[in-house]
Amino acid sequence: MSLVALRNLTKTYHAGTVPVEALRGLDFDMEEGEFVAVMGRSGSGKTTLLNIVGCVEKPTSGRYLLAGEEVAQLNDDQRSVLRLRRIGFVFQSYNLLPGMSAIDNVLLPTVYSGIPDAPQRAQEALARVGLDGRGHHLPSQLSGGEQQRVAIARALINSPSIILADEPTGNLDTRRGQEVLTLFQDLHREGITIVLVTHEQQVAQHAQRIVRLMDGRVVTDRRVDQPLDAAAVLAQMVAESEDAI
Ligand code: ADP
Ligand code: MG
To answer: Which among 130, 124, 163 has a CA at the least distance from the CA of 149?
Structure first.
């Protein structure tokens, strides 16, 4: 059974005078434990796809089965429960609350899920992303790469089975981006299913599979023969920057 199965999915937005068809009959399947990159031009429906898979938005029509459970027709509360239990989100712009410390940002999703030992788990999540001891810093006191790692710790706090990342390296220089990719590959090895939206081919080559969207549909879907090893690429970058000094 697929972890995610989307069938003839459509999403139409009615924001302005003209309806926008963001997804137009999209079919997509993903197994548990996969690492999939989603590519496609701006406006092709990538974020809409993540929001539907992540139970943030409801499709206009079509079916969405998550671990065999029909979610397309669930109400907002039911979708929130699923999202909290199963999904971690990571965004291009980190989306941390600026007035809150790193640790409090990581703790935010636990306010609703009420997991036991939340403070200790938040510490562990920060350590997991290499930010041990930085919990009391405000986002403004951290670099972009560090802020994104706080956001990844926040995504991990409820032990999600899926991480959905929307251009997570888009605001980072190549080295910090590579650190984030290293973290994603580690999480993937630990069994987390990952969907990563990117418009950079080099970033997508770290996934096992690349799906390309155009006009709200999947137009290509192919395996990556030899995914790049993020840690090896990072080590190479570090070595080259040391050579340059
Ligand atoms: P991508 O992430 O690939 O750039 P999106 O999924 O964000 O694409 O958007 C697909 C289309 O849907 C675009 O034309 C966009 O303008 C439109 N769209 C996305 N979100 C909304 C919204 N909340 N309201 C109205 N239109 C939207
Ligand atoms: Mg987008």
So the answer is: 130
Distance 48 CA to ligand 2 centre (A): 7
Which pLDDT tens digit goes with each residue over 169-178? 999 999 999 9
Amino acid type, 193: T
Tokens of 40: 């496609």
pLDDT tens digits, 160-198? 999 999 999 999 999 999 999 999 999 999 999 999 999
Indicate if ligand 1 lies below 6 Å from the C-beta of 19.
no
The closest-lying atom of ligand 1 relative to the alpha carbon of residue 41 is: 3
User: How far is 118 from 108, CA to CA, in rounded Å?
Assistant: 10
Supply the pLDDT for residue 115.
Answer: 83
Q: Is 123 in the pocket of ligand 1 (CB under 6 A)?
A: no
Closest CA to 166 of 54, 61, 241: 54
Q: Which structural domains are found in the chain, ordered by start? A: 32-60+73-243 (3.40.50.300)
> What are 13-33's pLDDT values in tens digits?
998 899 999 999 999 999 999
Task: Name the 3-class secondary structure at 93.
Answer: coil
Cα dihedral 84/230/45/96 (nearest 10): 50
